[in-house]
Each structure stands twice: as structure tokens, then as C-alpha cells.
Amino acid sequence: MTVTASARRKARHYAMQALYQWHMAGASLNTIEAEFHADNDMSKADVPYFRDLLHGVAKNLDRVEGAFAPHLDRSVDELDPVSRALLRMSTYELLHRVDVPYKVVINEAIALAKKFGPTDAYKFINGILDKTAADLRAAEVAADKKA
């Protein structure tokens, strides 16, 4: 089965919401995942990708936050919950999903920030992820700048 861009987009949408819920409610990932399957039409989402993002962020939280935190102008704890969820999810993708171009990761995060984040959060997300991508995917970013 070929995974479509819209199925990935839907997976990211749900994963961002699930990570937000995980942070805010502190429920277990398995409980949150079960709730998402019960409450949402997951038929149009790339469910394995959703699961990878949700569980991958949690398993690698220190490394994920350590990758973007140096670019923040505040502590991770001071981020609004939507921005925190987006930075965690996107940085996880930059670290562990090299099959996804860094520009796609950033553009998807910007779109979600525009939809769910506070006013102008998308500009903040873009700036942090640009710097994080330059660190984590230096060769890909350099090749892109040459093209």
C-alpha cells in the first residue's frame, strides 16, 4: 500500500493532538492511542506513522528536546503546549525519519501551528526547526541550499 501525503498529514495532525494530550493530561500513551482510535476516523491516516510519532517522541524525549532546546529563547517548560508538541514531533521526525525531507517536516509543522497554535506561533516554529534541521541534517540542508 502506498502511503499518501494526505494520510501522513492526518497522522501528524492526530499525533500532535495526542502529544498535546499526553503532556496536558499525563495519561499513558496506550490509553491516548486507544482513545484516538475510538474517537477519530483513522481510516484516512497513516496509522503506523501516527504510532511511530507518538511512541517515538516519548521514548526519545530527552534526545528530542536536547536537539531543539539550544535554539529556544526560553526553557522548554515555558513553551505553549501546542508549540511544545509540534517541536517534539517535528524534531523526532528530523532525527528518526530521514525518509521524510526536512522541508516537508518543517512545512507540515508550520501548517499545524497556523491551525492550532497561538498567533504567530508558526513563525517561531519555523525559526526553531530551521536551526534544528541545520544541526541534524546538515548535509541535506547544505545540498538544498546549493540547488
UniProtKB/TrEMBL annotation:
Alphabetically ordered keywords of this record: RNA-binding, Transcription, Transcription antitermination, Transcription regulation
Pfam families, per the entry: NusB (PF01029)
MF terms in GO: RNA binding
Domain of life: Bacteria
A single Gene Ontology CC term: cytosol
BP terms from Gene Ontology: DNA-templated transcription termination; transcription antitermination
InterPro entries (UniProt xref): NusB-like_sf, NusB_fam, NusB_RsmB_TIM44
Classification via NCBIfam families: nusB (TIGR01951)
Similarity field: Belongs to the NusB family.
HAMAP family, A to Z: NusB (MF_00073)
Functional description taken from the UniProt entry: Involved in transcription antitermination. Required for transcription of ribosomal RNA (rRNA) genes. Binds specifically to the boxA antiterminator sequence of the ribosomal RNA (rrn) operons.
PANTHER family from the UniProt entry: ANTITERMINATION NUSB DOMAIN-CONTAINING PROTEIN (PTHR11078:SF3), N UTILIZATION SUBSTANCE PROTEIN B-RELATED (PTHR11078)
Record protein name field: Transcription antitermination protein NusB
Top-level taxonomy: Bacteria, Pseudomonadati, Pseudomonadota, Gammaproteobacteria, Cellvibrionales
